[in-house]
Amino acid sequence: MVIAVDCDNIICSTTQSVLNVHFENTGERLQLDDIKSYYIEEYVSDEYKDDFYKIFLDKRVWKGIDILPNCVEVIKRLHDKGHLIHFVTATETANVHKKFRFLCRTFPFLNVRKRFITTQNKQMIKCDVLIDDYEKNLIDGDYQGILMNYPWNANFDDAAYDNIIRVNNWSEIEPVIDFMQRRKST
Q1: pLDDT in tens, 115-151
Q2: pTM for this structure?
Q3: Following CA atoms 35, 36, 40, 41 in sequence, which dihedral angle do they give, to the nearest 10 degrees?
Q4: Given this model, what pLDDT does residue 55 score?
């Protein structure tokens, strides 16, 4: 199967790192649980909203990012089982090179140069499975969706969609993909 993996909040803790840098800059503390929709800037004080997008370009964000537990190990096992892994992101253009280098360091067993996709419209991607944290990227795509559970998608009714399965972490992703593979084979 062709598996497309989002980067931010799927591979690494981007939102938490952004919130940490925002706190360093402003003293305004926000927690992940405070973010109830995909756009973080909706939750910062009005004085920071207009320029909030610039925080994603701050080097401290990338220095403070953690890789999510079990992510690398599960992706390695999926790769070893013969799945083709692609990384897909809707990042700021200025972050493309940083994200590419991060992925190369994190996944040395993959040729990231041939498996790195940037697009603002993930429905354009041809794959069997997309793993993402933004429900709108999973709706109307020609693929099965795996939605990583976060506060910003907690109110999304994934049960209303036959092609979306919600998970809480990487330990749950591999069995879901194994199930999808068996179902596709029958």
Answers
A1: 999 999 999 999 999 999 999 999 999 999 999 999 9
A2: 0.95
A3: -110
A4: 92
